[in-house]
Design a protein that fits this description.
Layout: H1 2-42, H2 47-55, H3 60-84, H4 93-107, H5 114-126, H6 130-158, H7 160-174, H8 180-198, H9 200-210, H10 216-232, H11 242-262, H12 269-273, H13 277-293, H14 302-315, H15 322-351, H16 358-369
Helix pairs in contact: 1-14, 1-16, 2-15, 3-4, 3-11, 3-15, 4-5, 4-15, 5-6, 6-7, 6-10, 6-13, 7-13, 7-14, 8-9, 9-10, 11-13, 13-14, 14-15
Length: 370
C-alpha cells in the first residue's frame, strides 16, 4: 500500500512538473508576442514624441471612460448569471463581479489564465460545482465568438472597404496569416458544445466504446465529469434565454466601444477628423479580431499594433500622425489595463485565502489518490 502511495505521489509530482513546463512555454510565447508586437507598435517614432503626446492628452475623457469599463464587466457578470441559473440559484451579484475582475487580473499575467481562475473563485464562493461552472465559461467564449462574428458581419455591411483595409494593415504588421485551420478549430469547439448540449448520448457512447474497455475507473470519472459539464451547457437548451443573452452581449460591446469613442476627444486629432461612434466601433472590431487570433496577457502589444496601423490605414490621408495613433492606442489600452488590474488585484487579495497554492493542490491530489 505504501509503495502504491509513493508511486501515486511521484506521478502527481511529474504531472505538476509537466503543467509548470507548459505554463512556462505559454508564458514564453506570450512574452515573444508582446516584444514583437510592442516593437511594431512604436517602430519609427521617437519615444519623446509618444511621451509628449500622452502627457498633453485631455484626461477628463479618460476619467469619463472608467465607469463604462466597469459597467461592461458588471454586465458580463449579469450575462454569466443568465448562464449559471440552470445550475443553481445565483445569490450574490458581488460574487459574480468579483470573480469576473479576478479573471481579468489573471489574464493580465497569462493569456486566458482567468478562464480557470474565475470559475474556481465563483464556485468556491457560492458552493457550485467547479466543472459545471467552468463549462459556462466555454459557453461564454462561444457566445463571445458568435457576437464578434456577427458584429464583424455587420461591419462588412456598413464599412466593407474600411474594415478589410484596416485588417489587412494590422495582420501585415502582426505577420499573421488567417488560414482555414483557424476557422476549423473554432467550428470544432462550437460543434463540440452543441453535441454535448443537444445529444449527450453520443458522448456517452463514445466514452463507453473507447475508454471503458481499458479502465472502468477512468470511464466512471469521465462520465461523472461529463454530467457536471452538461449542467454548465444547460443554457444552450433554453431558447427562451437567447434574446436576453443577446441583449446583454450587445450592451457589453457598447460599453467596450464607449471608452474608445470618448478618448478620441483626449487628442487634438478629433477636432480635425471628427471621428464618430462608427469609427470607434470599427477599431473595436479590428482589435477584437486581432486579440482573438494572437492573444497576449492583457492584450499587451497586439492592441497597440491593431489600433496604430488600423488608424493609419484609415485616417493618415486625413492628417492623422503616427505619434497620435500610438498615443491613442497606449491611452485606450492603458486605461483598461490599469482599471482591470487594480480592481482585480483588490478582489484577488481579498479572496486569496480560497485560491490554493501549488503545494495545496499537490496535497489534495495526493490525498485523493491515497
Amino acid at each position: 500500500m505504501q509503495i502504491v502511495k509513493e508511486e501515486n505521489s511521484n506521478n502527481i509530482r511529474k504531472l505538476l512538473k509537466g503543467t509548470k513546463l507548459k505554463t512556462f512555454f505559454k508564458f514564453a510565447i506570450s512574452i515573444i508576442l508582446i516584444l514583437v508586437s510592442g516593437y511594431y507598435s512604436i517602430k519609427g517614432i521617437p519615444l519623446s514624441d509618444i511621451q509628449n503626446t500622452i502627457i498633453q492628452s485631455n484626461y477628463l475623457w479618460v476619467i469619463l471612460s472608467i465607469p463604462f469599463i466597469l459597467l461592461a464587466h458588471f454586465l458580463r457578470g449579469m450575462r454569466w448569471k443568465t448562464m449559471l441559473e440552470p445550475i443553481g440559484e445565483v445569490k450574490s451579484y458581488l460574487n459574480l463581479f468579483k470573480a469576473v475582475m479576478i479573471g481579468y487580473f489573471a489574464n493580465s499575467v497569462t493569456p486566458r489564465g482567468g478562464e480557470l481562475l474565475r470559475p474556481y473563485v465563483y464556485a468556491r464562493s457560492e458552493g457550485f460545482s467547479f466543472s459545471s461552472t467552468f463549462a459556462t465559461i466555454i459557453v461564454e467564449r462561444v457566445i463571445d465568438l458568435l457576437t464578434l462574428l456577427t458584429l464583424f458581419g455587420l461591419s462588412l455591411l456598413l464599412f466593407s472597404e474600411k474594415i478589410i483595409f484596416a485588417l489587412e494593415a494590422t495582420f501585415t504588421r502582426l505577420n499573421v496569416n488567417i488560414s482555414p485551420a483557424n476557422f476549423l478549430s473554432l467550428i470544432v469547439i462550437i460543434v463540440f458544445v452543441l453535441i454535448i448540449s443537444f445529444y449527450p448520448p453520443f458522448i456517452r457512447f463514445f466514452l463507453k466504446i473507447l475508454i471503458r474497455p481499458f479502465s472502468h475507473k477512468i470511464y466512471e470519472r469521465l462520465i461523472s465529469l461529463f454530467d457536471k459539464f452538461q449542467k454548465g451547457f444547460a443554457i444552450i437548451k433554453k431558447p427562451s434565454r437567447y434574446f436576453r443573452m443577446a441583449m446583454e452581449s450587445v450592451a457589453i460591446w457598447i460599453c467596450y466601444g464607449a471608452p474608445m469613442f470618448l478618448m478620441f476627444y483626449s487628442f487634438g486629432f478629433q477636432a480635425r477628423l471628427n471621428l464618430t461612434p462608427g469609427d470607434a466601433f470599427l477599431l473595436l472590431i479590428v482589435v477584437g479580431v486581432a486579440v482573438t487570433i494572437a492573444p497576449t496577457p492583457g492584450a499587451i502589444g497586439v492592441h497597440h499594433v491593431a489600433v496604430r496601423w488600423a488608424m493609419m490605414a484609415l485616417y493618415a490621408t486625413s492628417g492623422l500622425t503616427e505619434r497620435e495613433a500610438v498615443g491613442y492606442a497606449i491611452l485606450t489600452h492603458g486605461t483598461n489595463f490599469i482599471v482591470n488590474t487594480l480592481v482585480g488585484a483588490y478582489f484577488y487579495l481579498r479572496e486569496k485565502k480560497i485560491i490554493p497554492e501549488t503545494e495545496k493542490i499537490s496535497e489534495e491530489l495526493e490525498e485523493s489518490s491515497g
